[in-house]
Structures are given as C-alpha cells and as structure tokens.
Specification:
Distance between the termini of chain A: 47 Å
Oligomer: homodimer
Strand content of chain A: 15-25%
Largest sheet of chain A: 3 strands, antiparallel
Structural class of chain A: alpha+beta
Helix content of chain A: 25-40%
Number of strands of chain A: 7
Strand order of the largest sheet of chain A: 4-5-6
Radius of gyration of chain A: 19 Å
Chain lengths: ~140, ~140
DNA sequence: CTTGATTTGTACGTATGTATT
DNA sequence: AAATACATACGTACAAATCAA
C-alpha cells in the first residue's frame, strides 16, 4: 500500500514496481503475472487503478493482456531484417486502431514506414524489424 | 449515439469517427477538440467511455491531452534527420514511463534505438527522426 | 494578483459481457 | 457446465492545471 508521495500517481508507482520486477527476472517472458484481483489486493488499490497500471505496461509493450487470461510478460520477438535501399527513408509512429487490427499487431507495438526510393511504402510492426544497410556487417 | 453493432466497442466506434474527422480536416493540427463533456453528450456515452476513446487517440499520437485543456490535435513535428552509418542497426519500441519523462516525449510517441557500429546507442523519439543512409538522396 | 469557472487527471465503486481454463 | 479472469460500461467524487474576469 502506497501513499501519494512525490506527487506521482499510484498507478505509475505500481507500474514502476512491476517494471522493475520484470527487469530483475522475477517474471520472465512467457510467464503470467498474478490475476488482477491478486495484484490489486497486494498493492491495496482499486480495480480501476490496477487496470490503469496494466494499461500503462501494455502501452509500453512490456506485457500483453487478453480476456480470460492473466497478463503475459512479452517475449522479445524474433526480428525480421529489412534492408534499406539507397535513398529510402524510415518513419516511426504508432498505428491507428484499424491499422493495428489489419497488421495483426498487439497494443504497444510501434509501426515503421519504410519509404523506398522507388515510391513504394512498406509498413511493418517495429518489434518485428531490424534495419540494416545493404552493405551492413550484420 | 451508437449501438453495439458489429461487436466493436463503443469507444472504438467513436474513435473511428473522430479519427476520420481529423483526417478530413474538420479538426486541424493545433486546434482543440470540444470538451469531454460536450463530446460525451454528443455521442451519448459515459465519461469513462469518452475518456477511453481519447486515450486510444492519444496512444496513436493523434491528439495530446493535458489537465485543464481540451485535447489538442497534434501537429506533424519537424523531423530530425539521422544518418545510419555502416553496420548500424535500428530498433523501434515504446518507451517506458520513466524514459518518456526523461526524454520529454508525449504519450503515443515511439522510441528509436540506433545501435551504431562503434557501440554507442542513440535513443530518440520516433516522431522527431527521419532516417537516411549516408549516401541517400535526401 | 486573486478569484472563480472550466476542464482534464486520478481514484473508487458496481454491474454485465465474453473468452479462457 | 462451471469457475476464473479480463473487457466493457455506467456512475460519483475530489484534485490539479488552465484560463478568464
């Protein structure tokens, strides 16, 4: 149970704690967090505050939540390699909800627009991409 | 005022409408959306549903919200140009809340990690960056 | 500069729907 | 079929930032 110290909202304080626990390996990718009910009881907050915490971590791409299942710590996905051709540009942004659905992306996954020199635009989830140069070492 | 047609949540339906209105220029960058109270009355939903709609658009980077002010339609920021050196890699992801604060990023702005071949890592907000190759035309 | 009105942010409570186990 | 668990959606109250008088 926390108080409102430091002017930081409760849901951010709890998010800090969970983020640190995940970083330290208390929860590893593929593992599930405890149920909401358990988490909120442990931290002494309401359901809404707990859900806001989880929403924050989901936005960050740290966890994935699905109906009927406890929150899952997200694994580092295998990245697809994309080669930037000469003159191509790359823009990062968040997808709109329709784009997210169309591309099959989870919440918290940014989107990369690769504007190729031939005018074509390739759009992919940013967590699936590793960009290298055509003459890159990788 | 909508019903639950198509199985799509209310807040997504309303977000679709607002997104389209912004796309069509009914609200231009720098302009403010109507107050929450007005929006929720117009769409016939509760405060929570309206706030969820705005949260979605904020995550997408389409609007920015601040306490005491109506939601602002975000302008396309001037992009900083970053040159990828040979062997460098680029990863896109969402910043954690502390990173967001440290980098002074708004919610909804992804982050780009540029792993340079010399081992240094440059971290910047994705909406501030345009990536080009050293021999690029741009 | 201070006051007050407006507006969003945070937080709690409750009920129902729906997917998973 | 039943229990578990997250998603959606309504309602309420107070705090804090902004802006105008």
């Amino acid at each position: 149970m926390r108080k409102r110290g430091g002017g930081q909202p409760l849901y951010e304080q709890i998010a800090d704690t969970l983020r640190e626990q995940i970083r330290q390996g208390e929860y590893v990718p593929g593992q599930r967090l405890p149920p909401e009910a358990e988490l909120l009881a442990h931290h002494g907050v309401s359901l809404m505050t707990m859900r806001r915490t989880l929403a924050l971590l989901r936005e960050e791409g740290l966890i994935a939540t699905r109906r009927g299942m406890q929150a899952l710590v997200r694994a580092q996905p295998v990245r697809r390699r994309v080669t930037l051709s000469a003159g191509s540009r790359l823009i990062g942004r968040m997808p709109s909800a329709p784009e997210r659905q169309q591309l099959g992306l989870e919440r918290g996954v940014p989107l990369l627009e690769i504007h190729c020199s031939d005018g074509t635009i390739e759009v992919v989830g940013a967590d699936q991409v590793e960009v290298v140069q055509p003459f890159g070492t990788g």
